[in-house]
Task: inverse folding
């Protein structure tokens, strides 16, 4: 496990984290570790999604070439509401 020191953390943020840790019956360290771990995993997921975007765009273009643009959702919603 690594260790780190946080400097220049806003005192209000620190107090908010302390209250949350206390309310959850956890240590401040455990809460901060969970928050950082969750955010790091979320950032990895966002990077994977950004990496998949070009492939998704290529697929969309192929589908549009083969099947056309399709019907805009607004038009379908309006038609459905008229029924």
Result:
């Amino acid at each position: 496990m690594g260790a780190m020191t946080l400097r220049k953390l806003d005192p209000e943020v620190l107090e908010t984290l302390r209250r949350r840790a206390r309310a959850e019956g956890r240590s401040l360290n455990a809460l901060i570790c969970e928050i950082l771990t969750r955010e790091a995993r979320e950032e990895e997921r966002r990077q994977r999604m950004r990496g998949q975007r070009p492939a998704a765009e290529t697929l969309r273009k192929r589908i549009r070439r083969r099947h056309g643009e399709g019907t805009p959702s607004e038009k379908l919603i309006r038609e459905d509401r008229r029924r």
